[in-house]
Design goal:
alpha/beta, Rossmann fold, 7-stranded parallel β-sheet, 9 helices, 10% strand, globular
Length: 276
């Protein structure tokens, strides 16, 4: 019961990694506010959490909207009166079936060209075709959402002299991702924000850290082709994909009161793909 008596808010808790973090925190004794833009996803997460707690709270909101974020934190305060842990996990891939098909076809064509001895004649051409709206939306959800939520959380945490802020980045931020430069840019921005935040609030009993997962089996990665997934796993030293629980355990470590000497760091459950 590492989080007994603690209150946590997890954004993007309606599925995948976010849901697993909610379940892990609840299992460890925390009261958990579950955020997502998908109300049905929140409902399903809370139903699964009921095995461990009856203290869960549904707080649907779009984290890219600062007004909705303020209302969400007001609801958390009304219910619990405080906040100890914030996990900025909400994220999007912002790709449709056509985009996924192009991604899979481009990779598979490059693979065939490479195996046959090259040269590579199939190119990504992602950035030159990326529209303003797609770029803006990606940064709004990941980077702006992290800022909006952290800003509200600090108003609570600084007053009490305690807090844990955990930002969900990606190895796309540390390695780059040719198929999604806007995603990589947003996740990289989160790392810079995390370090700055850690330096700003460390003396007030608040830590800020980031998690940078590698290839994790989630609904977001499910549409990737078998060939692309196999190639990703082959480039991972442990030769297997990760599971949401691998990331949730990292979040639990960072949320634990005993780990207050860890701040401004990147923990990367990636099977060794990224080695700083």
């Amino acid at each position: 019961m590492k989080l007994k008596g603690r209150v946590a808010l997890v954004t993007g808790g309606g599925s995948g990694i976010g849901r697993e973090i909610c379940l892990t925190f609840a299992r460890e004794g925390a009261s958990v506010a579950v955020n997502d833009i998908n109300a049905q996803g929140i409902k399903e997460t809370i139903q699964q959490m009921s095995e461990f707690t009856n203290q869960a709270l549904a707080v649907p909101a779009d984290v890219s909207d600062s007004g909705q974020v303020r209302k969400m934190f007001a609801a958390v305060l009304e219910r619990y009166g405080t906040l100890d842990v914030l996990v900025n996990n909400a994220g999007i891939s912002e790709v449709n079936d056509q985009d996924v098909d192009r991604l899979n076809r481009t990779f598979e064509a490059q693979l065939v060209e490479m195996i046959s001895g090259g040269p590579i004649k199939t190119y990504w051409e992602t950035t030159q075709n990326l529209e303003d709206e797609a770029w803006d939306r990606m940064l709004k959800v990941h980077l702006y959402g992290t800022f909006y939520c952290s800003r509200e959380a600090l108003k609570i945490m600084e007053a009490k002299g305690y807090g844990r802020i955990i930002n969900m980045s990606s190895i796309a931020a540390t390695e780059g991702l040719e198929a999604a430069p806007h995603y990589a840019a947003a996740k990289a921005g989160m790392l810079g924000f995390t370090r700055s935040l850690a330096r700003e609030v460390g003396m007030r009993g608040i830590t800020a850290n980031a998690i940078a997962p590698g290839y994790i089996e989630t609904p977001m990665t499910a549409p990737l082709s078998k060939a692309l997934r196999a190639a990703w796993i082959m480039n991972t030293p442990v030769k297997k994909s990760g599971q949401p629980k691998d990331v949730a355990l990292a979040a639990l470590y960072l949320a634990d009161e005993q780990n207050g000497f860890v701040t401004g760091q990147i923990i990367s459950p990636c099977g060794g793909w990224w080695m700083p």
